[in-house]
Amino acid sequence: GAGVSQTPSNKVTEKGKYVELRCDPISGHTALYWYRQSLGQGPEFLIYFQGTGAADDSGLPNDRFFAVRPEGSVSTLKIQRTERGDSAVYLCASSLLKNGFNYGYTFGSGTRLTVV
Amino acid sequence: DQQVKQNSPSLSVQEGRISILNCDYTNSMFDYFLWYKKYPAEGPTFLISISSIKDKNEDGRFTVFLNKSAKHLSLHIVPSQPGDSAVYFCAAREAGNMLTFGGGTRLMVKP
Question: Which residue in A89, A107, A112 has the most chain B C-beta atoms within 10 A of its own C-beta, making it the best mutation to test that interface?
Fold first, then answer.
């Protein structure tokens, strides 16, 4: 597609449940990023993929969070045993990395996760 | 420890006047700085950027200034228009590819 697509746009789940958030990046973009934006704050880095592998997962808050990108395109962010503090907008971005240069991010519209 | 800070959570400006949004950072290893604009229910969209080797970059009504010695950058919008009303995020990159964002400034341009 023309832009970064994230589904669902909204997700309400009960505390303790498992959720999956999907990101479909711009075709041909090699790098994919997940960020989390809590109310009144800026986006915070979670994890970054270069191709299929996680190049940097230092932003994942704990082991309940996991992300995959098995074919180097679509990525899924998985959250186990959700807690109310996980409520936030989860943003995905993709970019084209060429010759070591990052040609800028394009963000999706985000998934608003609400844990009740 | 916030490495990128936007100390003004909101700014109100009259249409046609200049809007100045400020951003401070602490990490001297940041080599690239960006400004993003965000409307409700949409993802951030890229506005303008500046490399650490420059002190000014201009694109139409938008100009970004970088003062490396003060670890400060600012975004100037002139003239401001009601359609500029949004949340503006300052972001910085260090060597790798992840961005560190400030907390955002909500700009309101009044007609």
Answer: A107
Rounded CA gap, A88 and A82, in Å? Answer: 12
Q: Which residue has the higher pLDDT, B2 or A12?
A: A12
How high is the pLDDT of residue A99? 60
**Tens of pLDDT along B62-80?**
999 999 999 999 999 999 9
Distance from CA of B10 to the nearest CA of A (A): 11
- Cα-to-chain-centroid distance, residue A84: 18
Interface probe, candidates B2, B36, B87, B99, chain A, greatest A C-beta count within 10 A: B99
Residue A42 touches chain B, beta carbons under 8 Å? yes
How does pLDDT run across A74-100, given as a tens digit for each residue?
Answer: 999 999 999 999 999 999 999 887 665
Cα dihedral angle (A66, A72, A73, A75), rounded to 10 degrees?
0
Radius of gyration from C-alpha coordinates of chain A: 14
| CB count in 10 Å sphere of residue B82 | 10
Extract the tokens encoding B79: 């003239």
The Cα–Cα gap between A77 and A100 comes to: 26
Residue B60, number of CB atoms within 10 A of its CB = 8
8 A C-beta contact, residue A2 and residue A15: no
Enclosing H/E stretch for B110: strand B105-110
Give every residue of chain A whose pLDDT is below 70, as ranges.
Answer: 1, 98-104
CA atoms of A44 and B51, how far apart (whole Å): 22
